């Protein structure tokens, strides 16, 4: 479990172990070299070994195998949000289309839709191309609504998007025809007596920890130097000329100081601790999200969801979601239930060594309420409770790009892809591709939505989107 001393703002050294991290992966404590390589000038120093860091390293080395890349991880490999989420891989923000169109314009909303859809498709293609053993499953995911008002609002978004498709066919990429279920059909589709309406569409479930660890292994095979249990404490520009062979940055760690041409912050909720100027904007806000794995109620054996499913309960005010481990996987039948936002008091924290016990109680016992006491039966046993630190921006979009706030050329080369708003599996893989494109060509790809650009933090007042 958790505990131990922590430096404020930095990863806690002893986080609670997540469901996915048992057993630990073979590279959990990997160090490519026994000593921290402080005498080398690296092409890239990547801080963070989650899906963003792993994808950036893999994509860079795939493009240029001669690159020298160092990755610094404060704890064990993939030990932050990437190894702690609920296991869904879904283009689940389709219902934000109207809010995005109203705030940023229809083109930006369509660009986001293309981006999110491509991210999910590219992750699935990566898993299949490399035969990644991460319990990857194709599922029909469901957005569930339990009040007439919320369902009417959701339907209005669906109809608005359908109207755009008629007017601008294909503008959002391959159009996903989501299926709408209402009334009794909705209740029967998901087996939830409170369901007023349901929207279903293709998605995936997986063990995210094993996916990211395998991605790291593929990077290691291409020459990545991974140093786990090595906390980056400070990132600073070095004095010197602009010669391409001269290091421009130093990263101070608890094991020594390394030098690099470029630094990539793949640090999500921990970014503020390393980037003082960004921290002063209050643009990134961290919070602890929690998940509980429970055994189903005694009457649930033949319930439709027990065949393996992915559900988000969109309107009950708690950000609730769950998936069921299917019959061919370890932990078959475990229900992984996350959310409990209304009872959480865990914003402005990076401490994943402890859990909010009110949230634990909510997640462990809400099955009876969601499914109905008769359908649920006697409560099953809890399996494991865990949390992870997520990171939010006021407009719900990540920050992707280079820090260009310095006018000094020798202080350029600090890059980041952070602020995934709890939706990293829907955004981070494609964000990494965009960042690699920017770092290697000097140009942002045309498919990167304009609202993702890092410079918006300093260029204007942020857009605040409520209710997302």
UniProtKB/TrEMBL annotation:
Residues in FAD dependent oxidoreductase domain copies: 43-438
InterPro entries (alphabetical): FAD-dep_OxRdtase, FAD/NAD-bd_sf
Any single Pfam family the record assigns to this protein: DAO
Superkingdom: Eukaryota
Protein name (database record): FAD dependent oxidoreductase domain-containing protein
UniProt source species: Apiospora phragmitis
């Amino acid at each position: 479990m958790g505990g131990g001393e922590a430096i404020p703002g930095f990863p806690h050294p002893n986080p609670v172990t997540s469901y996915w991290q048992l057993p630990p992966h073979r590279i959990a404590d990997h160090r490519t070299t026994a000593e921290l390589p402080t005498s080398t000038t690296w092409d890239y120093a990547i801080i963070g070994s989650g899906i963003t860091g792993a994808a950036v390293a893999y994509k860079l080395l795939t493009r240029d195998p001669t690159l020298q890349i160092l990755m610094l991880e404060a704890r064990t490999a993939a030990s932050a949000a990437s190894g702690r989420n609920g296991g869904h891989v879904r283009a689940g923000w389709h219902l934000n289309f109207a809010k995005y169109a109203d705030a940023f314009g229809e083109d930006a909303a369509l660009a986001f839709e293309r981006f999110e859809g491509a991210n999910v498709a590219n992750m699935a293609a990566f898993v299949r191309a490399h035969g990644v053993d991460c319990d990857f499953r194709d599922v029909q995911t469901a957005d569930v609504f339990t009040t007439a008002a919320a369902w009417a609002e959701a339907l209005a978004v669906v109809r608005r998007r359908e109207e755009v498709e008629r007017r601008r066919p294909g503008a959002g990429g391959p159009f996903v025809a989501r299926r709408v279920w209402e009334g009794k059909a909705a209740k029967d589709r998901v087996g939830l007596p409170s369901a007023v309406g349901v929207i279903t569409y293709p998605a995936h479930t997986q063990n995210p920890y094993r996916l990211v660890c395998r991605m790291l292994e593929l990077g290691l095979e291409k020459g990545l130097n991974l140093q786990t249990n090595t906390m980056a404490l400070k990132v600073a520009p070095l004095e010197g000329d602009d010669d391409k062979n001269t290091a421009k940055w130093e990263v101070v760690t608890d094991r020594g100081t390394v030098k690099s041409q470029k630094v990539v912050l793949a640090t999500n909720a921990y970014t503020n601790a390393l980037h003082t100027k960004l921290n002063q904007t209050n643009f990134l806000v961290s919070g602890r999200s929690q998940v509980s794995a429970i055994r189903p109620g005694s009457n649930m054996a033949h319930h439709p969801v027990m065949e393996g499913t992915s559900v988000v309960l969109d309107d009950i005010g708690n950000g609730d979601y769950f998936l069921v481990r299917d019959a061919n996987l370890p932990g078959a039948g475990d229900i992984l239930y996350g959310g409990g936002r209304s009872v959480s008091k865990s914003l402005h924290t990076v401490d994943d060594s402890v859990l909010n016990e009110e949230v634990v109680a909510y997640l462990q016992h809400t099955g009876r309420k969601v499914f109905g006491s008769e359908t649920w039966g006697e409560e099953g046993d809890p399996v494991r409770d865990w949390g992870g630190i997520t990171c939010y921006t006021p407009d719900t979009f990540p920050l992707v790009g280079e820090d260009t706030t310095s006018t000094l050329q020798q202080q350029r080369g600090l890059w980041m892809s952070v602020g995934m708003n709890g939706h990293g599996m829907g955004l981070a893989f494609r964000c990494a591709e965009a960042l690699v494109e920017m770092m290697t060509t000097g140009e942002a790809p045309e498919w990167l939505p304009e609202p993702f650009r890092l410079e918006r933090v300093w260029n204007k007042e942020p857009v605040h989107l409520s209710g997302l």
